[in-house]
Amino acid sequence: MRQEIKFKLNGEAIPLEVNPNEVLLEVLRDRLGAKSPKCGCDKGDCGTCTVMINGKTVRSCLVLAIEVDGQEVITLEGLMDSGLTPLQKSFINHNSFQCGFCAPGMILSATELLAKNQKPNKHEIQEALSGNLCRCTGYTPIIDAITDLTK
Amino acid sequence: MEDNKYIGKSTVRIDGKVKVSGAAEFIDDLDFGPALLFAAIVESKVAHAVINKIDTSEAERVPGVVKIVTGKDFPFRFGLYMHDRFIFAQDRVRFVGEQIGAVIARDAATALKAARLVKVDYTELPAIFNVEQALAKDANLIHPELRHYKHVPWFFPKSDTNIAHLRKVRKGDVEKGFKDADFIFEDTYTVPRYAHCAIEVHGAVGWYDNSNRLTVWTASQSPYTQRNLFAEALAPLGLSHKDIRVVTPFIGGGFGGKAGVSMEILGAALATAVKGRPVKVLWSRAQEFYNTYQRQGLTARIKVGLKKDGTIIAMDNILNWDAGAYVEYGANVVNAAGLSASGPYNIPNVSIDSVCIYTNLPPGGPYRGFGYSEFLFGLESHLNEVAKKMKIDPVELRRKNAIREGDILNYGGKMNANGLLEAIDKVAKEIEWGKKETSSDPNKAIGKGIALFWKAPAMPPNASSSAFLKFNEDGSINILISGMEIGQGLLTAMAQIAAEVLTVPPEKIRVETPDTDRNPYEWQTVGSHVTWGCGRAVESAAIDAREQIFDLVERALGKDRKTLYLENESVKSKTDINFSLKLRDFIIAGIQKSDGSYRGGPILGRGMFMPEFTSALSDPETSQGGHPNVHYTVGASAVKIEVDRQTGKVKIPKVVLAVDVGKALNPDLINGQITGGLLQGIATVLYEDMRFNEKGKLINANFTDYKIPTSMDVPDEIVPIIIEVPQSDGPLGARGVGEHTMIPCAPMIANAVDDALGIRIKSMPITAEKIALSFKHS
Amino acid sequence: MPIIHKFDYLKPKSLGKALTILAQSKNVAILAGGTDLVDMIKDNVVQPDVVVDIKGLDALNQIKFENDTLFIGAGVTFSDLIESKIIKEKYPVIFEIAKTVASVGIRNRATVVGNICSAVPCLDSGPLLSAYEASVTIAGSKGTRNIPAAEWFIAPRKTALQKGELVTGVSLPYPKVKHAGCWVKLGRYTGEDLAQVNLLILAMIDGTFRISFGAVAPIPVRAKKVEKLLNGQTITPSLVEKAKQLIEEEIKPITDVRATKEYRMHMAKVMFERGLDTAISRLNGSGLKYGTSVI
Known about the structure:
Chain A is an alpha+beta fold. Chain A has five helices and five strands. By secondary structure, chain C is α+β, with helices and mostly antiparallel strands.
């Protein structure tokens, strides 16, 4: 049975009717047009579906849409109200990404880290990103771009 | 060496912003409106069987189901190098997961639900899961019709066997070589199957509209090859190539897995079953594992004969490839590897049998390295064993036998200019070869391993590239190519080439992903060849535009074109210091004469490149006489590992890789290939472990149990070394370098483990468990 | 892929309301973090008629230390454990355990109670409950009951929880004497993995030990024979060797896609030896910082 929920997506208030069995990732992508979170494995193993709920990163493929009633959801699109963030600019300058598919999830995880800890060391960066799989880059240029911001 | 303004610089990627902002669109991001249908695939649950009956009646009754199709609707064979494959299984299935039919519905949930209700009745046949079974005298034939399959002229299938292709190399006289050898060493090495694990799964959307125009959007490395195969596979529908359009948005990693045609044929075929409506086929992660190309398994018997001073004078390799149920692409992997399986060494007498063998496992196909990673594990492991037994330093052995420019290759051609010796020296120095190190942790041992690598692009002799280059009113440029951006940075490299020729900075150049309606032909983005091939085409197109510019200025303004040059987006003259005409002032509008009339008009550059010196024809018994490979890229790599004797766990404090790229168009992008390729290669030897059960079903078709590295698993220090011995026919001297960085990983780790613990492990993967238990029992 | 199975969703605001729903519905699944449940619903392993979200029960979202007991409420996530001051102070080995569970994005949702209710053999919370001799607090229509850890796990994916009941939290009594611990988890690499063997050792200042293995038997194993061998003794290399032998009588590892039983048995001994050494060093004020792996 459809239920009405109200939540914030990237700062915008969204009233929405959802079936309990709708997954947050699908609702974001297919009904609300937020395409940056991706479906890479559908089981929470790859991190491409990462979004933030109340400032904490989650795997949106393992969250039912109905669970975000009253919560604040942020996708990569929502970080860019004032243009690219310093983190994004660093990624561009370091040529950190190749195919770009892991980028949205990776950037959210890195954003969460820097909000908690402005000067993470290499190990802390690696740990924060460990749930975001990347097959192209070998992670090194991603870690370097984040490290650059700590200087 | 001229001063390059844009080449050789680590220019910021022109697709950096679109990806970092999340704006980049991949196949599943495209919107097709409310008419979009979804297809769910009915798959074989058995490895080898005759299909008796497919009962779709219950599925058809599910509300929302639009159409159900099976093999009888598409009885057409297709394939890239050999036509041994079907869109849907016909009379029999040949691997667990093979597509038997599809349910098309208005939404994905309905399609999935209905697909589960399709009942298939089989009579199982004996299944073959390894090469020994396949080669046995009375083995069941997986393709009894093999003799009737069309194939490229350089394949040699053996009718009435499970051998789809046999590539034989006979150079010199191996028998005599072994007779003259002072030492002969022989051993067998095994490499299992691997999965590409691109983070984006395969997908295709097909739309056959009511004007009989077929458009297929695919996550693919090869839009034009896909278009061609769609046309061939659907030939009975009478579609002309011009009426088939393939559009490829950004892809989330390819690594070869998105080359050729695998599941995308379903998008094209199913579109014709629901004319007028777009239909989407999107793979799940599990399907990505078991029903896209896999990297073939290999059992390699390597036999090498040497003189006592360490000169290799004979090599005899038998490579038995577990190539899977269909080998339309994979047979070329076997072919390419066969031609080069002696490695980057100068060996006068070589015999190689590279055997492409059918099995009832998923189809093998192209994977970064194209057979070279697979055979190099055995080869470079074996040479280390040889060095150990002969008490020769492994680096010395390699230096001594390293192939040089002009040396004769296995097929009779000559080796190109290369920096292999420079690579060996630099890598040995960087890893401090010869310096034995001990760990501060008493449980751990430090070991070092080295491996050389080489690879040539494996492609048909007429694989070509083309490019259009068009200026805009403001002097900016659009380049139209069908070389795919698969993450390697091709768009940026092409922009840099055009920038260098036309003096327009890369930020003012746009290169997009292809659409076969608008972008000119490119064979495929594979084989690490597009920097070279597509780069040549872009270079030609830029030069073509430049020549048109000079012609026009001469014609309109009377300037001698021999004195003209480009600088800072303007035409200047060597003999008239005051002459400077901005491109944007005339590049679309033309040059105005004093009477008010104009000369010129839009400047469009056109370029095309096809190597005219290669040929795949050679003696089928010896491979002599052909020129199948355009050139080889070479290099060396070394690793220092710290391995825990009790747990078997391997840490990598340092890894170094040197590769000769001819000319580094963009050093950052090359470093990206090095860090990425190294980790992907390291993963195959240390972590990835594909498991089939006794019925041929892949049981770890997920990231939970097929482990690809996380950010926690990177080596502590990676040292990339770029070597530049120019490729004479490369754009600005460049050679390709996408696959190569993965190729040396497995053997160099195996060699380092041997160095640290004195145990030689001859099968991959070399997991912590394997190391710990081998060490315990040694 | 979309979820095909249809179900109702309720998010009660009080424990009483939650229990009423549980009593009324036959086929209920309780949702906290969802990292297990949503995956199982997607795979059709579990097909509930009603999903009850307990994240609205504020009382269960707490970590409390009262009366020498640590109470971890049903809504407490592994990230909460990592950030908790009281845990860093009093139960630092819980910080060490939580750090090895999956990755940040999973830890931000996954709960300890959800983990123990899943009762998968490789669960990371199993040895935690077992070694700390915790009790599981269960609320039902008939009232509250507490089950000791030793009686909680019955078989893979089977616990002592009855229909209509809800776990409200777990209580870990603070050991009466000074103690230190070491958590060791075997994965296939440094990145996130499900344990092939896991082990929690607590070393007490009175010379006793509590040792619990996970992922090497259907349920967590308290290695009582090994404890008996070591309790009150001077720990010498030969005693440790004896203990390692004795482990063979305590655990029954199997071969599966992740590891062979031979490697698991081998590693259980290696992990025990190193874990014991580290727990003792930490007890004496030296030893590796909590959060550093010994393997």
